[in-house]
Amino acid sequence: MNLYLQKMSNIIGENRLLKFSIIVLLVVSIVNSFMTYEALHYQRTILIPPGLDNKVELDSTDLSEDYIKTMVRYVSSLAFSYSPMTARNQFNALLAIFSSDSYPQAQTAFYELARTIETANVSSVFYLDPKIIVNKKDKTIEINGLNRKFKDSVIVSDGQAKYTLTYVVVDGKFLLTQIIPKDEKEKKERGK
Question: Alpha-carbon torsion 112, 115, 117, 120, what sign?
Fold first, then answer.
């Protein structure tokens, strides 16, 4: 009888321990589910642009100057250094950086330029000057560089090129609105 009572008390103790373990697992599971649900609200997706090798800060309305300069280097390599074989693909990648408002105008301009490049068999190399002037207040960027254009491996033009880029920041994302050659910008300013 004593042996039977000891087995019964052991089984009752085991059942209590199993019930306690199930309750603990249930509570942990509920807490984990709640924390996972809350974590989804704080989740951020960060896209790192090509060539970014240092820390940058950004929020929904402002970007650090290092981030802007990195994006400008990327944009300038896509827009100004091309060959007849790569122009269309590079311009497609560049159009992904334009804002939705200025996309149609940019698409027309760059597709026309790609057609001209392919027809005339012209290549271009742009050596960006390290001095990039960023005006965060007006959301403009001024860049200078040496632009060499080739036609069938013969230099057609070789000179300084200056551009003004305008941009917007949408949800922490750098988006271009315009790329204006400096001589066109000066003509517009004189016309006002």
Answer: negative
CB neighbours of residue 136 within 10 Å? 14
Backbone φ and ψ for 81, nearest 5 degrees, come out as: -115, 110
For residue 143 the two structure tokens come to: 């860049």
For the chain, give the percent of residues with pLDDT over 90.
56
Q: Environment class of residue 50 by beta-carbon count within 10 Å: exposed (0-12), middle (13-18) or buried (19+)?
A: exposed
User: At residue 48, what are phi and psi to the nearest 5 degrees?
Assistant: -95, 120
> What is the pLDDT, as a whole number, of residue 165?
94
pLDDT given at position 6 = 78
Separation of alpha carbons 1 and 166, rounded Å: 92
Q: Do β-strands 140-151 and 133-135 pair in parallel, antiparallel, or remain unpaired? A: antiparallel
- Specify the length of the chain in residues: 192
